[in-house]
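input
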Amino acid sequence: MKTSFTFDFGKALQSQAQLRLWMVTALVLTFCTLGALYGWLSAPQIAVAVLHVVYALVVYRIQRKTTQMSEGLLFTTAILDAAWVFGWVMVTGPFGILFTPLFNFSTIGYGMRTGSRKVLRVSQGASFLFACLVPVMSPYWASHMIGWGSAILAVVIVPWYAGELTRQFKAAIEFAEQESRAKSELLARVSHELRTPLGGITHAAELLRVEAPSVRSADLSKTILNLSEHLLADINDLLDQSKLTAGKMALSPASHALEGMLEIVRASIEARAQAKGLLFQASIDPRLASQVLVDERWLSRVLINLAGNAVKFTEVGSVSLNLILLSETQTEYVIRFGVHDTGIGISATDQAKIFSPFVQAEDGKRHASEGTGLGLAISQEAVRLMGGALRVASTPGSGSHFWFDLHLEKASSAPALTPSAAPLAPQSIESAPVATGRRILLADDNATNLFLLKELLQQDGHSVVTSTSGAGALATLSHGDRFDLLLLDYNLGDMDGTQVLQIYRMGCAQPAPAFFLTADATLVTERKLSETGARGVLTKPIRIADLRRAISSETPPAARQAESEAQARATPPSSSRHAEDGVNTGKHLRAVSVMYIDPTVIQKLQSLGRSKNFLVEMLSRAKADISRSTEAITAALQHQDAGAARDAAHALKGVCLEIGALRLANVGLAIMRGDDAQLESQSARMRADLRTEAANTLAAIDRILTEQTQIAASF
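output
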């Protein structure tokens, strides 16, 4: 697919106008100063100088007023610049040859600033035309055609060569963009196409393990699961390396206890070491008592990778992981993280290569160890992002020592925070918490995965309703069935899971919690799913332990029922009458028109504010932002400016989510995701929906503001 560039002619003209004013001013001052000193300054020269400065100043003033310059104005100034050079050549006689480089300066400047060969050719054509007129209108240059001919040759050749360079540069950018896009698409496809069948293999192996009729069958299923884990690790390494190469990986520091993190690493490595008959030791300096601010997920992963490699390449002896305090201040530790082994060692030649992607050390006995050769490359980059440098010292036959030093800020007073994405030690199926008796809606367009996941869930005593499409899932939800949990595949064929969740939530007073299932582990999808408000994301292949932990993390049905009954008892009589009149307060897929603002969000905002006027001030600002964004979207839709409509809708969605205006946020989201054709054909309906939802949302904000005013007055 060919990439087409859209030039910002306004910025190009703005930049060119600034440079023109500076160059013309310098030229006129220099020329007039020399002319006055040597007495050859004439009236025509003064006139050209003054008019040239006026022209440069007028264009500069125009560009200062607005950056929305037209393409026609850009071409006009490109021609006029060549005309002014022609004027200087005509009034300076023999000295005109000194001004001919300005033809090239103007031509090449336009071409390079815009990247457009069209602008370059127009400027070059104007320069050549005016250069050809010089000998026709100047007797001096008519009698010196050889000199002027060489000047014309330069006017033709130099811009032509610059134009070719511009073309090649543009082609290189297009190729790079195509390569980048193809790489991203390939990674997304690889992630999805490999994870989907791998999920089926894993689920089938877990079912075989649970129902194994013999010890041998159980051992074979364990072998399949172990091989699946290795393949999944290789896929994750490829995706992580892509993120690092693109500079998309970011750290998320939080307060953690290093001793707890060390236990995670120990649990992950110790079993592997014992299986090979190796002694594995993990120690921490007792002076490291305070918690530190660190991205535990990546630090743990680096240590697991280094310790895992040590176990892999050690046949006899031991592997040790040590955290040593190098120095300490009141606010930070300087810690050395080191991994020692008594393995085969690494030659000096291989030490220079092992941190490169897809490179593995050779031990003389085997030339290709398992894995992608990305672990050390990823670890090195992660350590660099944390502020350290991964180093190695090794002698063949005598083991290896990998280490890095980090400056970690103390967080003694902060509670230990363990992000949900932090790496967990491998857990068996039996060790995962098991919840039973849940009613679950499972939606996946892959029939094999759907069948296997259903079997796994039913093994734990859950009632499972399945759907192979987004429309089917919505139809099931609209029948009024009550569910304790939704498991929605991200890619459902007819629509993605995020759309199903948004429609369901918009039409349900008490929506069930939802988890997304996806084989797409790319950063774009991860960011998109994190913004939906789902309880979490389970990446395929889904381990039964992860699935059980996700289900167990939700409120049990009995507790939820008790909570609902308590809320019902606390409901005022007027609310009860509404329910009797037909307003369904259950989990049916029915529009709830009164919930334009989520009260739980308002309560959270009220608890966050330090000043008593925080909520009032925030809602007042939100009200102004909603009005402004609504007007901008309406105007953009009327003028069929799809880009402006999407930009304004993005702003509207953001402010609505902050205050819990979910219905209006969904309207903004629909406009954001609409393509140009949809926004044009459905403009009237979208504007009507927007006006209605915005008016009701603003009225709901006014009611909350009135309540807050009354509360303040009562105090």
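quick obs: The mean pLDDT is 75.
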